[in-house]
Amino acid sequence: MESDLLEFLHLWFMAFAVLLDHGIYRELDQKFRLDYCQLWKALILLDTKKILELGEQFGVGKYAKYFPVIFTGRTLER
User: Fold this and answer.
1) Rounded CA gap, 51 and 43, in Å?
2) Long-range contacts made by residues 35-44, C-beta under 8 angstroms, separation at least 24?
3) Would you say 54 and 38 are in contact if contact means Cβ atoms under 8 Å apart?
4) Rg of the chain (C-alpha set)
């Protein structure tokens, strides 16, 4: 039994090296960057009106109501 426990601990504490490749990077234009910052501010403050307005600007329309869930795990309802 003790050797089984040691083997389990050995497997449990194995170290793994993980390489995260973020892929392609690109420059964002100033308007997009500012709108994206405003979106995050609106998400934190749960500013529904601003979230929906920015959703229109980003071209997602009615689906902007899902931004809070996607980015923060919160819903628009308080």
Assistant:
1) 7
2) 39/67, 40/71, 43/67, 43/68, 43/71, 43/72, 43/74, 44/72
3) yes
4) 21
Tokens standing for residue 10: 């050995």
3 state DSSP class of 33: helix
In tens, the pLDDT along 9-63 reads 555 555 555 556 666 778 889 999 999 999 999 988 989 999 999 999 999 998 9
Taking the C-alpha atoms of residue 31 and residue 6, their distance in angstroms, rounded to an integer, is 57
Number of residues assigned to the chain: 78
The pTM is what? Answer: 0.62
